[in-house]
Amino acid sequence: MKTLRLREVAAQLDLSPQAQAWLGQIEQPVEQPRLPDDEEADDLLTRLGVGPQDRVNTLAARPDSQQHPALWWVLEKMYQHTIETMGEPVPIEGHFGWPATGVRAGAPGRHLAVWAYLAALPEVRRYHATHGIPDEISWSSLQLGPALVAHRSITGASGLGLFDGLWSPPLQLRGIQYRGLGRLEYTRGRLSLSNGPCGYTVGVHIPSGAPLESRACGDSLDLALQFFTHHFPDEPIAMFHCSSWLMDPQLAEYLPRRSNIVQFQRRFHIIPLASTDESSARCDQIREYLFATSAIDQDELDSLPQDTTLRQAYVQHRKAGRHWHTRTGWSPVD
Asked: What distance in Å separates the CA atoms of residue 244 and residue 309, rounded to the nearest whole number?
């Protein structure tokens, strides 16, 4: 089989510049990924919380090295990067994630990330076992179904391959992101204060589906501190941090002082927003979360449902010509 180069693969799959830069940093794979057969894949997908229709679609979109050489080239790189970085906390320069591969490549491209996940799953399970992670938390942390549901909700298509910079699944697969610790989710990361790595932090993520009740959040943070201290003793935690549109202090203009969101924000010291940092505007992120819809024009805002305080806040804020931002807060660990 002809050895492909990044330039050829990028042209065939219409890869973004960011995706090309990420793929270009990964060494030539030294180990071929092994894909499970259909029966094993179906069993694993079920265990990973993937719904029946998404399982059917995934099995029907199996990538093949001969039929889909460009996709297989990307699959090898995704697998290689996972193995190389297994267990490494998120670096101080951040995390790009996996590239979008499904715009031109159809169903096999949209489901490539799912197959990459299945290929590397045995490796992260071994990593969890090495660190004494309980089986219940291991499988909870590896759930893939919610990502597929979100992809369908936002793009209207099955798979994961229309998200460029697919964020969470690669971190789950590297043993970095953990669920099953109460209301919140957590990601291990490196800490830097201008002079390079100087310690460790744990990122806090806020999954949807339940109220952000204050006691539940406090209990979850306590559980997380115990969990990471016990299973990763070589990574003493200096702080928790949270980067989210839910941390935007502008929400307090619309929500009651005793609201769960405002109370959650008060757990953290929120880093000031630089006036020139336009890249932090995240109107699209909050819109997708609240309305599960793609881009909408300014003159169409009134067509959005306004049946909750948050939805009303989004519409009023945008109609006033203002933007929402992803903000970061930190909370020191004693």
From this structure: 18
The neighbour count for residue 105, using CB atoms within 10 Å, is 22
| Closest-CA residue to 118 (of 192, 43, 182) | 43
d(CA 289, CA 206): 12
How far apart, in whole angstroms, are the C-alpha atoms of residue 157 and residue 155? 5
Residue range 289-330, pLDDT digits in tens: 777 666 677 777 888 888 888 888 888 888 888 888 889 999
pLDDT digits (tens, 9 = 90+) for 34-87: 999 999 999 999 999 999 999 999 999 999 999 999 999 999 999 999 999 999
Annotate the chain with three-state secondary structure: CCCCCHHHHHHHHCCCHHHHHHHHCCCCCCCCCCCCCHHHHHHHHHHCCCCHHHHHHHHCCCCCCCCCHHHHHHHHHHHHHHHHCCCCCECCCCCCCECCCCCCCHHHHHCHHHHHHHHHHHHHHHHHHHCCCCHHHHHHHCCCHHHHHHHHHHHCCCCCCCCCCECHHHHHHCCCEECCCCCCEEEEEEEECCCCEEEEEEEEECCCCCCCCHHHHHHHHHHHHHHHHHHCCCCCEEEEEEEEHHHCHHHHHCCCCCCHHHHHHCCCEECCCCCCCHHHECHHHHHHHHHCCCCCCHHHHHHCCCCCHHHHHHHHHHHCCCCCECEEEEEECC
What distance, in Å, lies between the first and last C-alpha atoms of the chain?
57
